[in-house]
């Protein structure tokens, strides 16, 4: 539990009742102890009470210290200490939570039994006395280090190192994808051909005149906000606008002020005067400065830009903003103010015109921009593999130009697939970046949140990325966690909902993934403590970062209502305690779905095995083992006696796995789906299952014998399979078969028709680079029910057999450059019964079986087949059904 400063004091005061009860209990049970023992116990209770009371003074000050330290988290020393201080604070909060829990327990059970005190003595006094002392010492030591760094005196302002000053001159030589927004801005500037036309801003002043004289005035200066996330390009857009010839010709004066989070009216007024005169304003009298600025602006059409405004512009109930705007009244018609901000509150507080919302670049433009950042001025045509990786990186960047520049620069340093894949697989915070890059830009939004919203925002990190939040549900969690402070008679649930509304925009601009994992390490585990009635699904990521103590506190095996558990180690480095932590996260035997991801140890936790002293997972229906590269065996886990109700098994990216124990699968009476992917060393002899309906084999060994009487779907992808012996397969119910095997040279049939695919309706064969014939498979005896055949990218395939398949309605052939004919009189008859025929990229194809037969087909597509006689004839006779 993490409490607000007010909540901490309240909870400690509540615990006073607990210690009064404890002292009373000691006196009433004095017969159990001698005089010295009783005195010693009383001393321990007093010391515990005193230690907790000291938190009343310590923790609120620590929250303030953390808040200040975050403003200097870009400094190495502060960044190193800050996570440690957060951890110590969490431990202190957990201790307090435990004492509060005992307080409630005593209130419920009363003094009717001595058991509450016995437990309090055994667990709390003996177990937590030293822990409390250690936590207090850690807090004192860490706060002392930070105070020695000058944290206590730090001004909560953005450091110029992470927020460099901007100017009106464009930094970019080329701008991508902002034409629409630029035209929208230019709409407020009269075209040179008609400088006296009525402007869009006239309506603000109630003017109805069709002509505007040179000395017409505006009572209020129009303010147009440009709002968007950090790094989306607000400043760049305004720089482009300010440098446009129409703008330069229309405005007599352009004033650019970089505001940042220091909205000091006097400073900003001085900078405006300096822009007008070129001389520094020396007076400190605000009245003098404002009159001077008003005089300089008189009878001038001017544009003033306030770049990067934050919430402090509205401090003093908006009085600071009103004071700054005082010199901009009764100004020349056509003058205007542009404001850039990422704060929705600022937008609402300063606008007189509808704001321009700047979003991420659209996918097409963003890809062009990203390529220019990653490949420089050179073309990317020479790097097709890198282009493919780049397209997979692109969604991580959410259309942000700054993010594209950041990662583009990193990628351009090494144009090799290994380097690009490393960046693809890394999270943003794992990449080393300069101070002015995307993460510091995003973190600024988080830093400027008030402390109570920081707590609420950080809590959201226990949910998976891209999770869609429900306001009422999240608000209840915030209230339960003590993040929401009461305000008069307003229900705390209503206040929490307002917190949600405040974060709706800010959460977007912060991006959950912009904060490092150590910020909330262990939070989700601590939330599980004492929640044995927890229902639903639970995902724990970065398990490798948990301590054994964190994992033990969860006691997941007691959460009997837990349905789905996802344990994601998310580490490519073996941790010393990874096995122990995984062991302590043993789920309940009532679990229905388990995903075990990215585990690096050689041995699985013992709860994965089937020894007699451990109960079976009798309710488990779904299991995923993914990214466990060093695991060699699943024999003891995937066994009918241990997981009897299993329906779906997925095993992926287990490089050292020797086999999937499919010899035992005959005992799985409910198994419906089996996925085995990228397990290159797995080699199983037999797959026998009476219930299996879907089978996916991808980059793994092929079972020599497959006997699955219920299988309806089979997807086979494997580059090292060279031959398929159809006599080894018994799949009487199979309806759809996909084969994609780069080294496959032959598909060998059988004279035993009991192995025929009597129900197969769809056959897809693709990228079988060495396959030269399908004669044994494409026969009426083997495929009596076939309806659709797709053959793609099989360059060694020379022809399709001439036998008629009477039920065939759709035939598609693409990229089979060796095929010269679909031959024979029988095929001619067969083609006449087709409803759809598609042939593409078969440059040597000469004949299909006659133009007359082809012409009868309802839908024909023939593309990139220059030698095909029928194509030439069909193009004349039936143009609408032929694509050239």
Short description:
This protein has 884 residues and is of the alpha/beta class.
Low-confidence segments, ≥5 residues, pLDDT <50? 1-12, 194-213, 505-521, 875-884
Terminal-residue CA separation: 68 Å
> Roughly how many Å is the radius of gyration?
36 Å
Q: Count of DSSP E strands?
A: 28
The CATH architecture of the domain at 179-191 and 218-358: 3-Layer(aba) Sandwich
The overall pLDDT, averaged over residues, is 78
Structure notes:
The protein is an alpha/beta fold and about 900 residues long. Among the domains are: about 5-150, no CATH class; about 180-190 and about 220-360, Rossmann fold; about 365-440; about 450-520, no CATH class. About 35% of the residues lie in helices and about 15% in strands. The chain has 25 helices and 28 strands. A 14-stranded parallel beta sheet has the order 8-9-10-11-12-13-15-17-20-22-23-25-27-28, with no helix packed on it. β9 (about 560-570), α22 and β10 (about 595) form a beta-alpha-beta unit. α1 (about 5-30) runs antiparallel to α2 (about 35-70), α2 runs parallel beside α4 (about 115-150) and α3 (about 75-110) packs antiparallel against α4 (about 115-150). It is flat. Mean pLDDT is about 80; it is low at about 1-10, about 195-215, about 505-520 and about 875-884.
What order do the helices and strands come in, and which of them pair?
Elements: H1 5-28, H2 35-69, H3 76-109, H4 115-148, H5 179-186, E1 217-220, E2 223-228, H6 234-242, H7 245-250, E3 253-260, H8 265-277, H9 286-297, E4 302-309, H10 319-325, E5 329-332, E6 336-341, H11 344-350, E7 356-358, H12 363-375, H13 384-393, H14 401-412, H15 417-425, H16 438-447, H17 451-459, H18 471-481, H19 492-510, H20 523-528, E8 536-541, H21 548-554, E9 562-568, H22 578-584, E10 593-597, E11 622-626, E12 648-652, E13 673-677, E14 686-688, E15 694-698, E16 705-707, E17 713-717, E18 723-725, E19 729-730, E20 736-740, E21 746-748, E22 762-766, E23 788-792, E24 799-800, E25 810-814, E26 821-822, H23 825-832, E27 836-840, H24 851-855, E28 859-863, H25 869-877
Parallel strand pairs: 2-6, 2-7, 3-4, 4-6, 8-9, 9-10, 10-11, 11-12, 12-13, 13-15, 14-16, 15-17, 16-19, 17-20, 18-21, 20-22, 22-23, 23-25, 24-26, 25-27, 27-28
Antiparallel strand pairs: 1-5
